[in-house]
Each structure stands twice: as structure tokens, then as C-alpha cells.
Design a protein that fits this description.
Number of domains: 2
Largest sheet: 10 strands, mixed
Structural class: alpha+beta
Number of helices: 15
Strand content: 15-25%
Distance between the termini: 21 Å
Strand order of the largest sheet: 4-7-8-6-9-5-3-11-1-12
Helix content: 40-55%
Oligomer: single chain
Number of strands: 12
Order of helices and strands: HHEEHEEEHHEHEEEHEEHEHHHHHHH
Mean pLDDT: 82
Length: 381
């Protein structure tokens, strides 16, 4: 019998316990990876290719406060600004659903390709969208989810405005980081709501990255000390501002992850202690045959380390396969669009498993080291 086969035989002596130990490690690490990926997606939302040149202008007091439509020509005259479009959240429910599963925004359709050049759709559909004020375009994810096709009609009842709008689907776009939204004519929105002369936000396309800081400063200064002061920020900063509304999400996820790891250490250490305690007599025989303490410790460490890494292979590998090849948007009900298990997260989870294998072997190793050959031989199997 070789040393390797001896270690494997001891690790699998109680197959039920070994299986449960591996599964507990696998499930815990799967949960840990899920939490870490969710935290990454929440705190580092993905960006479209054109996001680096987009500025979002909102009310300085609150995003819920509208902005006056008369601000548009002032922003358009600022040097470095290429295009300005209103972008107003409609907040409509589809098919009497309790919550919105896709967002709807009113905008200037003529500026769609200027602002969101990454959105791809056939030219015929785009032209149809421009011609018909009551038409809309919808992202491919939402179209597939609700089995919508070009030419279909949908009705949305707003939870914000006293209006119900009916749309004809003129096109289906794809290629953006979030192919779920519905976009429609802002003129149609104005007519339906009584032409309030208000917009939710302004989305601005800047000519170059070098112009970005200057444009943001100029927009903020243009409406300083007015009745509708604004806050201009990059699209990235605008996305992250939503995350801050959730509170200290990092602390919450970090706390849960710490509890998961700590509980896993206790369970694994307890399992290894039980397994070694049952073999005190055998280890005493090995001592009597001349095996040193460090060699016995190596046997215990290899057993603990092997079980932990096998659990990591199943748990981390399973998470990677599920989130990489599965439809995360469908699995999360549209909450997450991407769920990338990065090499950094895989490395961290594997490191946790390796550390777990080492820590779990310390207590039983110390116990074996302190037990004399005579006391060990007196131990019953």
C-alpha cells in the first residue's frame, strides 16, 4: 500500500461522513461565490461601450423631482455637447403585473442612435419607429420573455402618472448591456400627461472623453442658484448612486460571507476531529512503528485538504458552470443581467477551501501529538 492510497482509504473509510463533509463544503462555497458575484454586480454595474461619453443630468434635490423642459436649449449650447435628449421614467405595469419587469423611458427618438449607438436593430424598424409617434421599441430580452414581435400592440398603465399608453412595437433592439427596456416618443408622453413641460432626466452625449469634466462642470454651473438646480454626472456615477440607496450592501454581504466561512470551519473541524478520534489506536500503532509527529500531521492534513478541495471543485465549479452557461436573467427574474464568476472570485473561494483544510486539521493533529503510544493503544476503535 502506498502513502497516497493509505490517505485516500482513511478519508473514505466512512463514506457517508466523507460525502456529507464534501457536500457541506461544496454548498457553502457555492453560496460564498454567489454572494461575492452578487456583490460585484451590485457595486460594479456593467457598462455599455458608449457609457464613457454619456452624462446624466437629474434634479439636485432628488431623482423623483422633475426638471423643466426649458433647460434643453441651454444644455445644447454648452461647448462639447453633441446631443441632449429627455429621458423620463414612465413606470408602467404590463398585463396587470404587480411589479415592473422592464423599464419604460420616453425620449427623443431621433437621438436614439446618437446616444445609444450600441443598440442594434434593422434600419426599416428604426425608420418605422421615427415615423409613428405611438410606436415603441423594446429590448430583445423582454420581447423574448413576453413573446412579443414587431407589429404587436401593448398597453402600459403608469404607477406615477394618471395615464395608460398603448404602443405598437416598431422594433426590437439588442446589443446593449441591458436589452430589457422599452423606449418611446417623448411627445406621446407629453400629450398623454397634459404637456407638463417637465422631464425626468436629461441624457447628454459628449463629443470626447476630454470634454467630459468640462461639460459636467458647465451644466452644473448653468443652473446653479436656480429653482431647478441639477446634478450632472457620468452614467457610471449615476448607476452607482442607485446602489447607495440600498445602504451599506458591502457590509451586509461581507457579514453573511463571514458567517458562512466561520460556520463551515466549525463543521469541518468537528468532522475531522471525529474521524481522527476513531483512529487513535491506528495512529498509535504508526507511532510505535516509528512514524514521527510531522508525518502523522501530514497524513491528517492531506486528508483534510483533499476533502476541502474536492468540495471546492464541486461548489466553485458548479457555480461557475451555472452562472456562465445558464440564463441568469431568467433565473433571477430580470434582477441581474450578467453574473460573472471572475478568476479573482474563483481564486478567493479556492483559497478559503485550502485554508479550511489546513485549519480543520490543526485540532486533531495536536490531539494526536499529545497522545502517547500507550494511551492510544488503549483507545477502542
Amino acid at each position: 500500500m502506498t502513502v497516497g492510497s493509505f490517505i485516500i482509504k482513511n478519508a473514505l473509510r466512512n463514506k457517508r461522513r466523507a460525502t456529507l463533509s464534501v457536500l457541506s463544503v461544496a454548498v457553502s462555497l457555492f453560496l460564498l461565490v454567489t454572494l461575492l458575484v452578487a456583490l460585484r454586480e451590485l457595486t460594479l454595474p456593467p457598462e455599455d461601450a458608449g457609457a464613457a461619453l454619456r452624462v446624466v443630468v437629474r434634479n439636485r434635490v432628488s431623482l423623483a423631482n422633475p426638471l423643466p423642459a426649458r433647460q434643453r436649449p441651454i444644455i445644447e449650447k454648452i461647448p462639447g455637447v453633441e446631443a441632449v435628449s429627455p429621458f423620463t421614467w414612465f413606470g408602467g405595469n404590463f398585463k396587470n403585473e404587480e411589479s415592473m419587469t422592464f423599464a419604460q423611458f420616453a425620449m427623443d427618438p431621433k437621438l436614439l442612435r446618437t446616444l445609444f449607438g450600441e443598440a442594434k436593430m434593422p434600419e426599416k424598424q428604426y425608420e418605422d419607429f421615427l415615423k409613428d409617434q405611438r410606436s415603441a421599441i423594446i429590448g430583445k430580452l423582454s420581447a423574448d420573455k413576453y413573446k412579443l414581435k414587431v407589429g404587436d400592440k401593448i398597453s402600459l398603465t403608469s404607477t406615477i402618472y394618471p395615464a395608460t399608453l398603448e404602443f405598437r412595437i416598431a422594433g426590437i433592439y439588442s446589443g446593449t448591456i441591458d436589452d430589457r427596456n422599452l423606449l418611446f416618443h417623448h411627445k406621446y408622453f407629453d400629450e398623454a400627461t397634459g404637456d407638463l413641460g417637465q422631464v425626468g432626466t436629461w441624457w447628454v452625449k459628449v463629443r470626447s472623453a476630454e470634454d467630459m469634466p468640462r461639460v459636467i462642470t458647465a451644466i452644473n454651473a448653468a443652473f446653479a442658484n436656480s429653482s431647478s438646480e441639477v446634478r450632472a454626472e457620468t452614467e457610471r456615477a449615476f448607476q452607482l448612486s442607485f446602489i447607495s440607496m440600498l445602504g451599506n450592501i458591502k457590509l451586509l454581504v461581507g457579514s453573511i460571507s463571514t458567517v458562512v466561512v466561520f460556520t463551515l470551519i466549525l463543521v469541518t473541524a468537528s468532522t475531522m476531529s471525529m474521524a481522527i478520534r476513531e483512529r487513535f489506536r491506528e495512529l498509535a500503532v504508526l507511532k510505535a512503528l516509528g512514524f514521527r509527529r510531522r508525518e502523522l500531521f501530514a497524513f491528517i492534513l492531506a486528508e483534510s485538504f483533499g476533502l476541502a478541495l474536492l468540495g471546492a471543485l464541486i461548489g466553485v465549479g458548479g457555480a461557475y458552470a451555472l452562472y456562465t452557461y445558464g440564463n441568469i436573467s431568467h433565473m433571477t427574474g430580470g434582477i441581474f443581467i450578467t453574473f460573472e464568476v471572475t478568476p479573482k472570485i474563483i481564486g478567493f473561494a479556492t483559497l478559503v477551501a485550502a485554508s479550511l483544510g489546513i485549519v480543520a486539521s490543526i485540532a486533531p493533529s495536536i490531539s494526536v501529538a499529545r497522545t502517547s503510544v500507550v494511551d492510544g493503544l488503549k483507545t477502542l476503535d
